[in-house]
Automatic annotation (TrEMBL):
CDD domains: AdoMet_MTases. Coiled coil: none annotated. This is O-methyltransferase. GO terms for biological process: methylation. InterPro entries: Cation-dep_OMT (IPR050362), SAM-dependent_MTases_sf (IPR029063), SAM_O-MeTrfase (IPR002935). It comes from Tannerella sp. oral taxon BU063 isolate Cell 8/11. The keyword RNA-binding does not apply. The lineage of its organism: Bacteria, Pseudomonadati, Bacteroidota, Bacteroidia, Bacteroidales. Keywords: Methyltransferase, S-adenosyl-L-methionine, Transferase.
Length: 220
């Protein structure tokens, strides 16, 4: 039994992890800084550590057809693109078209931009336009109130053996607070999604305490 053990705070743990991971690419580092200067909610971007994890996931899986729900700045989009083969295609969907100028600034410079197909519309209108081919990987990072709806929408479109990744599934720790069921609608949305995934026997799943929570879902 260990006693008097020093437990570093979360910031120190993250700093250590970053120091022992691949560096943030210069373009993404610039995007990160720009987001913190120009945007109201810069913490909504995936960030350095999670971005490297997304790239690594693609390196290992080598998906050819990807879907992202929630583009925001494009940070996660670019990380997914980094990890995929040259013939991959990534459809990224964002309902807030006010983010388009910010996204395009970095998309135009990104070496993998030809893989990335942005759509500025509601995912429900976009999906029918993308053809019948199944997706190898879906990344969900949009309105937390609609996570269950997004999951039900895309699940039939993911091939067996494909992955669904869902971001923010710990939601700043609000999911474990005693009064969580009485808090805001976004917290309730995340909690409902987490319960949905836990009870879905069509998949295998793990909720990783990476940054704000990343759930990895493998379709049987």
């Amino acid at each position: 039994m260990l006693t008097d053990t020093y437990v570093p705070i979360a910031e120190e743990i993250e700093a250590y992890a970053l120091d022992h991971s691949d560096a943030e690419p210069p373009l993404l580092a610039r995007l990160n800084r720009d987001a913190h200067v120009k945007l109201l909610r810069p913490r909504m971007i995936a960030g350095h550590l999670q971005g490297r994890a997304l790239k690594m996931c693609c390196r290992m899986m080598r998906p050819k057809r990807l879907l992202e729900i929630g583009t925001y700045t494009g940070y996660a989009t670019f990380c997914l693109a980094e990890g995929t083969d040259p013939d991959a295609e990534i459809h990224t969907v964002e309902i807030n078209d006010e983010m388009e100028p910010f996204f395009r600034t970095y998309w135009q410079e990104h070496p993998d931009r030809m893989k990335i197909h942005p759509h500025w519309d509601d995912i429900r209108r976009v999906l029918p336009q993308l053809g019948p081919e199944p997706f190898d990987l879906v990344y969900i990072d949009a309105d937390k109130r609609d996570y269950c709806a997004y999951y039900d929408l895309v699940f039939p479109l993911v091939r067996p053996g494909g992955l669904i990744l869902a971001d923010n599934t710990l939601w700043s720790g609000k999911v474990v607070k005693e009064d969580a069921t009485h808090t805001d609608t976004q917290t309730r949305g995340i909690m409902a999604f987490n319960e949905l995934i836990r009870n879905d026997n069509r998949v295998e799943k793990v909720l990783l305490p990476l940054r704000d929570g990343l759930t990895v879902i493998w379709k049987k």
